[in-house]
Amino acid sequence: MANPIAYPLYEEIYLKHVTVRRILDVIILFLQLSLLIYRFFNLNSQGFTWLLAFLCELWFTIDWILTLCTIWTPIDYKTHPDHLIKQVAELPAVDMFVTTADPVLEPPIITVNTVLSLLAVDYPADKLACYVSDDGCSPITFYSLVEASKFAQLWVPFCKKYNVQLRAPFRYFSVKSTSSSYESLEFQQEWRKMKDEYEKLCQKMEEAHKLVPSDLSADYEAFKDIKSKNHPSIIKVIWENKKGFAEGALPHLIYISREKRPNLSHHYKAGAMNALTRISGLMTNAPYTLNVDCDMYANNPKTVLHAMCLMLGLKQNERNCAFVQFPQMFYDELKDDPFGNQMVVGFEVIGRGMGGIQGPAYAGTCCFHTRRVIYGSSPSHPDINGKLRNEVLEQQFGCSKEFTESVTKTLYGLEQKTFCHGSVLSSIEAAYKVSGCNYELNTGWGNKVGWFYGSATEDVLTGMRIHARGWKSAFCMPDPPAFMGCSPSGGPEFMIQRKRWSTGLLEILFSKHSPIYVALTSKLQFRQSLAYTWILNWAVRCIPELCYAVLPVYCLITNTSFLPKVNEAAAMVPMALFLIKHLEKLVNSLRVGLSVRACWNNLRMKKINAASSQLFGVLGVILKLLGLSETVFEVTQKDQITSNDEGNSTKADAGEFTFSDSPIFVPPTTLLLLQLTALIMAFLGLQPPAHGGHGAGLLEIMCSMWVVLCFWPFLKGLFGKGKQGIPFLTILKAAGLALIFLHLSMRVSMV
Ligand SMILES: O=c1ccn([C@@H]2O[C@H](COP(=O)(O)OP(=O)(O)O[C@H]3O[C@H](CO)[C@@H](O)[C@H](O)[C@H]3O)[C@@H](O)[C@H]2O)c(=O)[nH]1
Ligand SMILES: [Mn+2]
C-alpha cells in the first residue's frame, strides 16, 4: 500500500466565510436578547399583546440559539478520488438501492434513468450490485427495467469509452444536444445511435401499458392478477454479471417487490429499505450500501469513489464514520427558485454545520451506509450485545439461517470482496423468505436494527439512532453534484411533502427518541442533540410565526400596539433586528450563488409553509398523539421529464403557484384576508379610539404590509383563474374564519 500521507484521500477545509457570518449571527443574538429584556421590563404597562409578542420572541431567541449551536463550526471535506486507486489495493463492494412506490406518481422512465446512471458509475462492475424495490408491484416498472438493462449494454460502454459525465440518458440527451466540433466522426455516429436507441427505449416504455397485461409471458406471470397492496414477494434477477470486472461488464440488477398484506403494516419506505438490506445481504452482502430515491440519478460518475474516499479515509484516521451523506439537489430548477424548494442554503448550512459536530443527519437518499452499522453495531463492539450467540442473532435478525450467517460475516468484517457469479441466483429461495411480510415479527427490525419505524421521516430517526451509538457521519459536496432529483413544484404536491416532513419530524420529537433524552442516555453528543432538536422543531415554529403574523392584525383593528412607537429609541431594536436578520439571509444566499430574488422567494415560501403545511403537520401529530389518526406516507408526485432540447422547462404553469381545494390553503388565505381588512381599517381610520395613547402605529402597519408581501402568491390567487386561482369555496371558508377572528378580537378588546 502506498504511503497514505503522500496521497490523502480527503482534506478538511477551513471555511473562510465563517467569520463574517458569525459576527452577524452574534449581533442578531444580542439584538434579540435586548428586545426580550426591553419587553420584560415593560410587560406590566402594556396589554396582553406584549405578553404574546414576548412569548413569540422568546421562542425565536431559543430557536436562534439552537441554530447557532448547529451551524457554528462548519466543516467541509475535499475528496481525492484519484488517490484512492493509488492507496487502496482493493476497493470495497457497494450495494446500491433504489426505491419506487407508485408507477403513476413515479413514472418508470424516471426510475430507469436513475438505474442507468448507477450502472454506469466509475467503479469496478464486479463490486457493484443494483437493487430496485418496487412497492407499487408494477409489471410496467419491471418491464421497463428489463428493457433498460438491454439498453445498458450499449449505454454503459459508451459512457465509459467517451468519459461521458452525465450518465442519466434523459439528461445527457436534453442538456447536450450538439456535439462540439473536435469530437471524432466515430463519436458522432455512436452518439446518434445511442440517441436512437434511447428513443426506442422511451417508446417501448410509453407503450408498455398496452403491451404488458396482454403479454404476461413466463417472466411476467408473477404479476398476474395481483393487487399492489396484497401480493406475495416477487424477486427477479434482471441481469447477472457473469463477466466479473472484464471490459463491458455490467453490475447485477435485481428487481424486488416485497410481500404485502392488507392487515399488516408495511412501514412504507423504511420497510422497503429493510427488505432491501436483507435480500442484498443474502445475494451480494457488500460492506457498504448506497440508497437513492427513484428520482435521484448519479450526476457525477465518480460519486462512489468520492464516498469511499471519506469512508476509507476517515476509517484510517480512526474516525468512526457510519455514513456519508451527499446533498439532495434538483434538476430543471426554475429561475430564482420561486417555490424555495431547492433547499440549497439549508443543505449547505445544516449539512456542513452538523458536519462540524457529530456529522450531518441522514436525509433518506443520496447516502452511503456501512452495512454493519445498519445491523446495529457500535464503534467499540462489532455486535449489539457483545456476544453473538445464535439465539441473539435470531431474535434480532429473524429466523433465516442463511441471513444470520451473512450478518455474522458482516459484523466480523468477513464480507465478500467481489461478487462471484452464481451467488445471486443461488440465494433466491432464501431471499424470498426474508422478504415475506411476517419475517420481521418479533425481531429487532425497525427498532434495533435496520431502518427505524414510527416516523414518516424514517431517515432522520435512523440517522439519529446511529449517532446515538457513538458513530459519526460525513457530508460531501463534490463538483459536479453527486446526485440530482426532482422537487415538487409549488402548490399542492409541495404542500403535501412538507406536511409529511413536519409530521414525521414532530413524531420523533414526541417519542421516546426525543434527542435531549437520547443524549442523556446514550452517546449522542450534547450539541448534536441540540442540532437534532432544532431540526425536529421545524414545524413547531409555525405557531409563534403565526401568532406574530396575527399580532399586527389584532393591533390594527383594536387600535393597540405590540411594538414601540417609531419615535421611541426602543423602536431601533426591532427595526435593526429585522434588517440584520434579512441581511444575514441575503449574505448566506449570495454566498451559495443564489440571486437576491431567489433569497426573497425562499423567505416568502417559509412564511407560506408555516401557515399551511407546517400547521397541518402539527395538527396531524396532535391527532396522532390523541390516538385519532395514523400518519401515512403520501408519495410525492415526480414530474414527467419536461425539459426540451435546450434544457428549459416547458411546463405550462412552471413558476406559478397553483392551488387545489385542499384545506391546507385555508389558513394562508385567512391570514391574508385578515391583513387586508386590518390595513383597510387603518387607512380609512375605522379603528376605535386608543386607550391611554398606546394605539397602533407605523410599525404595526409595516408588519402587516410585510405579511401581505410574503403572501403575494395568495393575493394573486384571489383573482386567478383555474389552477392558479384559489377555489371559491376555500376563499369562503377563509372569509368565515377571518370574520370569526375579527369578531372575537373586538370582543376581547372591549373587556
Ligand atoms: O411506501 C413507500 C413510500 C415511499 N417509498 C419511496 O420513498 C422515496 C421517497 O418518497 P418521496 O415521495 O419522493 O418523498 P420525499 O419527501 O421527496 O422524500 C424525502 O423525505 C423522505 C422522508 O419523508 C425520505 O425518505 C426521502 O429519502 C427524502 O428524499 C421514494 O423513492 C419512494 O418510492 C417507498 O419505497 N415505499
Ligand atoms: Mn422525493
Question: Which key phrases capture this entry?
Answer:
single chain, 751 residues, alpha/beta, 51% helix, 8% strand, globular, binds uridine-5'-diphosphate-glucose, binds manganese (II) ion
Overview of the structural elements:
- There is one protein chain.
- The protein has 751 residues and is α/β, with parallel strands linked by helices.
- The chain folds into two domains: 18-72 and 524-628 and 659-750, no CATH class; 90-131 and 230-243 and 252-487, Alpha-Beta Complex (Spore Coat Polysaccharide Biosynthesis Protein SpsA, Chain A), CATH 3.90.550.
- The chain is 51% helix and 8% strand.
- The protein contains 26 helices and twelve strands.
- The strands form three sheets. The protein has an eight-stranded mixed β-sheet, sandwiched between helices. Strands 1-2 form a two-stranded antiparallel ribbon. Strands 8-12 form a two-stranded antiparallel sheet.
- α23 packs across α26 (728-750).
- The protein is globular, with a radius of gyration of 28 Å.
- Residues 642-650 have low confidence and may be disordered.
- Uridine-5'-diphosphate-glucose is lined by residues 99-101, 106, 133, 135, 268-269, 272, 293-294, 364-365, 456-459, 497, 500-501, 504, 633, 635-636.
